[in-house]
Amino acid sequence: MAKRLKAKPISDKPGSPYRSVTHLDSLANINIPGADTLDKLFDHALAKFGKKDCLGTREILSEENEMQPNGKVFKKLILGTYRWLSYEEVNENITCLGNGLTALGLTPKSTVVIFCETRAEWMIVALTCFKYNFPLVTLYATLGEEAVTYGLNECGASYLVTSVELLESKLKTALPQVSCLKHIIYVDTKTINKSEYPENVEIHSMQAVKELGAKPENSSIQPSRPVPTDLALVMYTSGSTGRPKGVMMMHKNLIAGMTGQCERIPGLGPKDTYIGYLPLAHVLELTAEVSCITYGCRIGYSSPLTLSDQVRASRAGWGANFTSAACSLLAQLPPSEIMDRIYKNVMSKVQEMNYIQRTLFKIGYDYKLEQIKRGYDAPLCNILLFKKVKALLGGNVRMMLSGGAPLSPQTQRFMNICFCCPVGQGYGLTETCGAGTITEVSKYVLGRKIYKLKIIAWDCVFSGGYTNNDKPNPRGEIIIGGPNVSMGYFKNEEKTTEEFSVDENGQRWFCTGDIGEFHPDGCLQIIGGPWASVGSTAGDLHHEMKVLTGPFFLPSLTTLCSDQSYVISFVVPNQKKLTALAEQKGISGTWVDICNHPAMEAEILQEIKEVANKMKLERFEIPIKVRLSPEPWTPETGLVTDAFKLKRKELKNHYLNDIERMYGGK
């Protein structure tokens, strides 16, 4: 199974693009005749699934505070059942909102900015913009005030859609620095004090705009439908390497990207439920949700804090969103807080088992791993050992898709084995509409040392510091070509010219900056660059190294090195386990005191070395000094993006004193 040919060059010429063996002659096209724009995809779904559930939201019944051992107070949500909008009801919302925006003065091909958390209203706004030919500009909800101000001023949009929370927490102070905005639409049912905002900006609730569109004098407005080459999105990146860049995507770019994505989700249809919780401003989530809507799969909206009883904002016993929505499909962006937390909780419970139970679990785990490597499953182990683990995701998940960053082999093995479903890893970028390659997910596939991906619908060639004649496998910079490659960067021709190109056949290409190699079976392995486990970071001071996991530290650990003669490491420890270890050694104090204690640093460093040796890392890759970080790396702390990619400049500045100290002041 593993040796079967999956992709190969389309010619014998060195550097020839690789394609899937199922699409050697031509690239794949969506299997919906005439659906060449995003609005037509929804029209198709509306005609086919009109009265079926489309978008669902859980009502928040109440909140309660829960005191944590470290003294922090977390809000626990008590949620009602999902309330679903049918395709027909979503279409009614689209029509009323589109007509209302038109009545406010918005004209076709004029941009609309959405700066909002993932929710049903976000998708309704997007579908409205696709239908009425209003290019949608997306900004991550976790962007700081400076980045939001920059994005708003650069795109020059007059219309902004947001939430009351973001309006009050980030936009209120930014608005005086933004002169282009004329209308702000907030999606909540709350009321706000409009007198606190600039007089030159009109503020409306989304409901009021829909009511305006439903008035008799506006109800007959006909949308100006887009064509495939019209601009659909300007998607601003999460800003991991400086100011966010706006990536321009036409309707045909996004449809090409979704074509390959949908081909690798077997049986996608109205029997499925997808949980929407990742940022819709991320191309993976947006294309995944539009794909689900196209094929009749309903979407239940959630947040990372209410997905499972294992995460902090779900009150145990009140039915997490996985369970309540009967989720069958799930996407994630590693490193995933959800998967990491579930993984840690499961492993903690395994350690608490008696000797016989632990032994049985290990035997079953190892046995199923061997079966998966051969392309088989282990049904008896699923029933006897992994049923309760699978229930943490509601018990119905049949497939997971992971993208945005490489998934560690350890995490993928855990997900494959304990959740009893295949995990497909995708490789792509915002500039390629999230699409480039994806593993086969109809079978249990484990990656090579890092991971392997399969070319499905777009050409991929190599250039740069490596050669196509490298032995045993051709290597080089990955360049992705095809109709999924975007138009370039908004108002940045210099950067567009630098990273995009068009060949003699009119094929558009994007230089990813990642280094990869093709194996004899046609699988692509990333061996260098931002997507790999070894890649450069900001400045000459340090480089990002192997990502390690262990009992006493989180899978989000990242090791950094310098141009010095040794490697140093920055670790986010497992608070529960490290605190217990400190008590065993007679070390007391606050969480910060424990993290700063030399004995704790020594314990973690020894753990890192043991894990590194098991991973067979090179000697120069193993750190000899460690710094324990008492604060997690989350979008809220500003050290990672909304997609959990490292903010290299921020990390460098945050730990600059520690870096200098650990290198002896050099």
From TrEMBL:
Would the keyword Lipid metabolism turn up in this protein's UniProt record? yes
- State the PANTHER family in the record: LONG-CHAIN-FATTY-ACID--COA LIGASE (PTHR43272), LONG-CHAIN-FATTY-ACID--COA LIGASE 4 (PTHR43272:SF22)
Which part of the chain is the AMP-dependent synthetase/ligase domain? Answer: 74-490
This chain belongs to the protein called: long-chain-fatty-acid--CoA ligase
The source's domain of life comes to Eukaryota
Q: Does the keyword Electron transport apply?
A: no
Q: What EC number(s) does its UniProt record assign?
A: 6.2.1.3
Q: Which GO terms describe its biological process?
A: long-chain fatty-acyl-CoA metabolic process; neuron differentiation
Give the taxonomic lineage as stored in the record.
Eukaryota, Metazoa, Chordata, Craniata, Vertebrata
Its GO CC terms are: endoplasmic reticulum; lipid droplet; plasma membrane
Please give the Gene Ontology molecular function terms for this protein: arachidonate-CoA ligase activity
Source organism of the structure: Catharus ustulatus (Russet-backed thrush)
Q: Which UniProt keywords apply?
A: Fatty acid metabolism, Ligase, Lipid metabolism
